[in-house]
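Notes, Module 5: Reading structure tokens.

Key idea: the token line is not a picture. It is a compressed description, and you learn to read it the same way you learned to read a sequence, by spotting repeated patterns. We will look at two proteins. The first is printed below with its tokens.
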Amino acid sequence: MTTQRRNGHVVASGVRAVMALAIGVIAVPPLVGSEKASRAVRLTSDSSPTTPSSELPQQQPRRPDGDGGVAVEGESRQWHKLTVTLDGPYAHELDNEPNPFVDYEMNVTFTHESGSPSYVVPGYFAADGDAADSSAESGTKWRAHLSADKPGRWDYKISFRHGETIIDSDDPESEPLAPYDGTSGQFDVAPSDKSGRDLRAHGRLQYVKERYLKFAGTGEYFLKAGADAPETLLAYVDFDGTVTRKPQKSPLKTWGPHVRDWRDGDPTWQDDKGKGLIGAINYLSGKGCNAFSFLTYNAGGDGDNVWPFVERDDKMHYDCSKLDQWGIVFDHGTARGMYLHFKMQETENDDHRLNNRNDANVPESLDGGDLGPQRRLYCRELIARFGHNLALNWNLGEENTQSTEQQKSMIDYLARVDPYGHPIVVHTYPNRQDDVYRPLIGDRSELTGVSLQNGNVGDTHWQVIKWVRESEQAGKPWVVAFDESGNAAHGQPPDLGYKGFDGHDRQGKETYTEHRVRRETLWGTLLGGGGGVEYYFGYQFVENDLVCEDWRSRDRSWDYCRIALDFFRDHQVPFHRMRAANELVDSDPRDNRRYCFADLGELYLAYVADGAPTSLDLREAEGRFSVMWFNPRTGGDLTRGSVETLDGGGQRDLGTPPTDPEEDWLAVIRKR
């Protein structure tokens, strides 16, 4: 017998030192001979291998199968997470024949009493049902999550099938597994009782074929602002089975600076684990931000410390306890009003293209970039375990280099399996935007938006306008977000004064500060018609994209984000009806000194970055307009400047803001 240590305890690759009665086990015949060889070929390849953590067909000893009982757990309210847990066949994470992640398929159909909506929700193996706390690797619990749109009675029916590698086919040859298949029941859902930032007060955030996402419950349109860094957010010491292959470059995080932000009543696991990361989410939410991003798979990448599997190179066996712990963090994010940006892979492991080579061998890639069993299973597991969250997107990957056909296959699969229709986006290199995005635009794919990156913050505004307009012209408006503005070395710098930052990077090179980012990234995106921003932290700064554990390093920048989001909400700005109109302030989209965002004839937002005299073209407008000024550095009420009213029908001088005319200001010109 050989053993390996995982999740803080010894796991046997042979016979485990645990006694159990092997009775009541449903017989699923093991594979032999050519069947086993054929299966191995389907699950792996020379270029994208997967190495089982155990060579045994099944972990021993076995325990009885479940009796088919069903429990419905959770707060039975609209938009809340409700969990159907089936007491099903006994399995172990490391089992190969049958593999619980590949050879069983559980789906639950949830239908509202009115007949609509009806969702087919993928299920997953949940070990003992308490794996986040127990670190269990085996059990009889199988789960599916619903976030119900409507109050009232909901019916459910479970489909539970088994067959060889059934996850690897759209029409698998499989058989129903008694007594689990066909189990049904019902439960009642009450209206939501949540309020404030909690997303359960607002409903699911949906792509509605417009430039902005919209909450299904309240009908409000959404703007995001938050953290794109660290990409290694999930490389956390408190998660089971989490190690780093690059301890010097990318050590595991404790999130120690944010332990103080954890509050009584917040979730933990295994007594008091999780306080640092839960506290970090509290902090960012408390600053008024509403988004954070993370890689869910970076083996072979810059961090090489995040994967959902039981072991780094075992792509077909998933770590139940680690993923349950991830789920606690994501659920807390939903309760704190946070949009979850799932970056599903990165450029170093998305396919066999690497460093401008199309013939590289990347063993960490899933199916070499194709939609095979590894990638199907990966997508399905993320959807099944986390897709109930109300605000999220599936990003194909950071700096994605898959071919257009590979991207389309992955996009189509995500769209087909995700019952809730969450947005699907893709991120790529600054110089590859045209090559990657144009083949996916309009009716060419199910893509709903783009996650932009550039090499110069000064290019943010015009690039947002470009993709907003191109997608609209193609007949399917995209949600355009700027998630990585600035070059890799700098991105979003720390606040001036943080750990001595004085506007120079670690090599002594003078760079820009938080103020330019506020002007050109934040307001440049929002006034270009973009759906929001996330801030990337450059590698030439402390608290960068790989090692950041302290979001307070950008404390004032989060304030600027809150100020911007509050402006649009508090002043009831109908941004979903507005368009970039820089020509009205005699400005080119590449000139970041002035922006104009307009609902023509009704409302104009004129952003003036440097106090330069500005006029507004109202020749096509009629009536009288009020002129007020908003301070994007401090927020607050609108104030009067030197000019209080303008008449339509001509070119009109906006005058000067109330104070500090050399600073950036936003003029609000509204029809009276």
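Here is the second protein, with the sequence above and the tokens below, as before.
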Amino acid sequence: MQDTAQSVRAVRFGLFELDMRSGELRKNGLKVKLQEQPFQVLSLLLDHPGEVVTREEMRTKLWPEDTFVDFEHSLATDINKLREALGDTVQSPRFIETLPRRGYRFIAPVEFLTHTSSNAVKVEKEIEETRPQHSEKAQHGGPVDDPPDVPANHESPPQQITTGGYTRRAVAAVVQGALEEHRARVRWRRWAVAGLTLTGLGAVLALVVGLNVGGLRDRVSRALGAVHEPPLQIKSIAVLPLENLSRDPEQEYFADGMTDELTATLAKVGSLKIISRTSAMQYKRTNKPLPQIARELNVDAILEGSVLRSGDRVRITAQLIYGPSDRHLWAETYESDLRDILSLQSEVALSITHAVQIKLTPDEQVRLASARPVNPEAHEAYLKGQFFFNKLTKADLRKAIEYAQQAIKIDPDYAPAYGLLASSYFEIRESGFGDLPNREAGQKTRAAAMKALELDDSLADAHVGLGSVLLGIDWDWAGAERELKRAIDLNPSFGRAHAMYAWHLAIVGRTDDSIQEAKRAMELDPISAYSYLTLSAMYFGAGDYNQSIDQSRRWLAMFPETNGPYSFLAYAFEAKGMYDESVAARKRWMALAGAKTEEIAAFERSYKVGGIRGAWRWRIQKSKDGEAAGGEGVLGVAILHTLLGDKDKAFEWLEKGYRQRSQSLCYIQWHHFAIDSLRSDPRFQDLLRRMNFPP
């Protein structure tokens, strides 16, 4: 079409004809309503049939003066209008195919009608002259009816050569485009173009279609609508970080916050596995192909998109891609006032569940429909706090607390802000940053979580926060299980909730169940240090030291500069009697934890001089109020005394932990490789009773 643009008067495809002079689209001769801008988009696509027209080409040629943001919205709208006019769908395109993050391609056979019939494409003309006229379906591109009976002595005319049940005109058009695209692989194209007889051409077409060369038969079938592909089974989705279209780095917190909230909203659907934000955020600004991301996260589909905030309005554009094939499944743009942002997130989530044909339970329908208006200023402070919380450093957790308190000051009834406050105190307590004593951090976690749940019982993170306090401080095992299971019920894809529940199961002695729960956490959050930590720990607590070592090494490969993997390597090697390896891992652990060089050297000397028992004594000597340079807690010191055979000293430290309500003491049954020798002592059974462990 490029060389004959001035002489083309119309373009015909399927039942449609686009008049280039009048700018009209007709179907079976009847005018179809099409506005000017969608017409220009269609013309551009038809100018490059079978070729990818990139989004940048479209922007340059059709929106040269508009901004990028306006272009994105306008293009999505125009493509939707085009598909509506053509009766086309994103899921099973017959005319316009979307290539995610690249552009669009017109995939149907086309015929260029010029002012003189001699300008017609040769193959199209030859097929047209020999096409049987006995079937209306054939004229309209459907399967050809069986021809009428032919006398035995009558030589079959060339046009009766089979082409798999489809009209030769449509097949020839698709073949022509396909052979041009795959010239190097389909060598005999030049034979057909060079002037094969119609019989030879028909035989070649039949062979190509029959053998499905280059997927040609599938393309023909889809183009003609003769094959209805079964619906894709989408059971798992990863929400990639939404692009910040403002291009303002100061607005990154808003785009990330929208991603978090959309992820959390989708995670309320129990029949969908939604990858946790920790893992999905690893792909922010990545150049990896979507199929590769889908493989790495082990999901069926990828949700990607953009967000733009302008004044008190917000616009979200989202599209769902089938991971294995990069196939476009669904796309839509949503816009609302900031006060209704939660309703907007629910609307997006509902649209996605409809697109992938997920049937919601009555409870899920209620949860998705119960979004409330928010105070924009409080919500903005909350999003800023969430942004810093996700960095999980000592300083950033402090900033998260400040912004959560700011949101609460603006709106004292804003439940998510209390949930963020609870999560921040929980992380400070779990990470041992030391700004607050564990017990004080735990009580602050409890107060914030209970206030959040008083305002909104559907906040899964608040249930996790409360469950962690009941587990680590109150030793209320039944209450902790209730809260953690409630969190999982509200948000089945909440990886951190599954990980915390795995710890609960290990603490109460259900080791097999703890491993399964840790594996579930890993599925939901596969690029999270906490997922690796939990699974390594569950294997260790079950006495499967080889698996714990293997998992710790995987953890180390993923996060080479963290000290956590070395801690479990040290414990597991120690349990296996591999003391050289244990000491080497502990030295690396100490170094990454910030221990001084001379301190590490002293530990190494203690091992060289006194063997493993010398190293154990050094670690006890370094303990101060239950905390040692190597990361020992009250339980750790008690275990060291047990390993040295001093049970009385071990029980002194265990009692000290009981009086302090030490968090480490709740792991007393999990750390069984050294504790087992104490189980027969009445003092141990009495301690378990006082800690509310079931008999």
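Summary for the second protein:
- The first strand starts at residue 8 and ends at 13.
- The two ends are 83 Å apart (CA to CA).
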